[in-house]
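retry 2 of 3: previous attempt timed out while embedding histidyl-adenosine monophosphate. Reduced batch size to 1 and resubmitted. Inputs unchanged:
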Amino acid sequence: MKYSALKGIRDIFPPEIYLWQKIEKIADDVFSAYGFQEIRPPIIESSDIFIRSIGETTDIVEKEMYTFNDKAGRLITLRPEGTASVVRCYIEHHLYNLPTPQKFFYSGPMFRYERPQAGRFRQFYQIGAEAFGIADPKIDAEILSMLKVFLEKLDLSDLTLELNSIGCGKCRPDYRKALLNFFSDKVRSLCPDCQRRYEQNPLRILDCKVDTCIQLRAGAPYVMDFLCNECREHFDLLQDFLKLLDINYLINPNMVRGLDYYTRTTFEITCKHLGAQNAVVAGGRYDKLVEEFGGPPTPAIGFALGMERLAFLLNENLNNTPSPLVFISTIGIQAQKEGLKIANQLREMGIWTEIGYAGNSLKSQMRRADRLSARYVLIIGDDEIASGKLKWKRLSDGSQGNLPFEEIVSFFQKI
Ligand code: HAM
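retry 2 succeeded.
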C-alpha cells in the first residue's frame, strides 16, 4: 500500500525548511523589537470559540472548519486561525490586568477545508501578532511599520499595502442599509452565496470573486462615505502616521475581510506574483471581540501572514543551504572509533560534523562528503592511527595536510 499526505496538506522538509527558518527568525527578531512576546495557544479549541468570533455566516465557519466530536462528545475544532485562541487566552488568564498594551505573536499550523489551489492549502502556517488595549491609531501604524521592516528584511518587493476602514457598531448599520438598498433589485442575479450574504452579511458581497457579482457591485456605496466622526478621525490620523513613517498604501474600499470580528482598520498586503490567492498578510482591528467574549472592553488589532505564500515569494536559491564543516572518513574499526571520538568533540563545540559508516569504501565516503558539500574531510586509516596524525583536505581548493590528533579541535576552533 502506498501512503501519501492528505489532499491540500504538504510536508515541509530540507532544503525548503531553511527558508521557513529564515522567515521565523526574522519575524522573531523584528516583532521582539516592537515589544511583541511569543505566545503558544493550542491547536484545538472548543468549536464555539471560532463560531462566535469568526462569525456564524462566514465561509470559514460555514464550510471550512475541521470539526469533530472528541471521545466525550465535546465539539472540537482544529484552529482555522489564531486570533480567537489568543483572545480566549487573554481573557481566561486575566492578561488584561497586566500593563497595557499586551502584545503577542504566535506561529503554527492552521486548518481550513478549502479547495486546494496554488497558495491555498488545508493545513497552512501563519505567523500572527495581536496587540490588546490601545484604541490610538498609532498602534495600527506601529503594526504596519513592523510589517514593513519585516518584509524589507526579507528583501521582498512588488507588495502593496491595501487599507480600508469598515467602521464600527455605530456607523456600519447605516452602511449596511445603503448596501441592502443598492443590491435590492440585483439580488436574484447574485451568486447563491451572495444571495445568502444579502440576508446575513451584505458587506461580504463586496469581496466575492464571482464575475457576475463583481459586475453587479460596480457603483455600490463606499463604506468610507458612511464612517462616523470617530471612525473618520481614526482613519485620518492613521494615514497621517503612515505618511510620517514613509509607508505607502492604497485605499481599497472593497476590502471587507472574510471574518466578522473586524471594526475600523482592515488591511491586506498583496503581491501581484501570487495569482488569485494574492494576500500575504491580512489583519485589522477587532475592538469589540474581547468584550463579546466576556472580557472587559478592550480595543485590539492584529494580523497574520501566510508562511507558504511568503516562502513562495522568497524564491531563493535553495542550493545555498547549510552544509557540514567536517566529514570524517574512516577505514578500519580502530579508525572508526577514533573518528567517532573526534566527531563527538567537534559536535560538542557546535561544529556540524558527519562521519562515514562501516561497509562504505573510502571512495563512497568521499562521494558522500562531496554531495553534502562538506568543507573539510578528515581521513583516518591504519597508517594515520600508527603515525598519530590524520589527513585533512579542503574540498573547495583541494589543499591538504597532516595534523596530530590532539590538534584537531584547535584547528577547527580557528576556522
Ligand atoms: P486571514 O485573512 O484568514 O486572517 O488569513 C491571514 C493570511 O493567512 C492570509 O492572508 C494568507 O496569507 C494566509 N492564509 C489564509 N488561508 C490560507 C490557506 N488556506 N492556505 C494558505 N494560506 C492561507 C486571519 O487568519 C486573521 N486571524 C488575521 C488577524 C489576526 N486579524 C487580526 N489578527
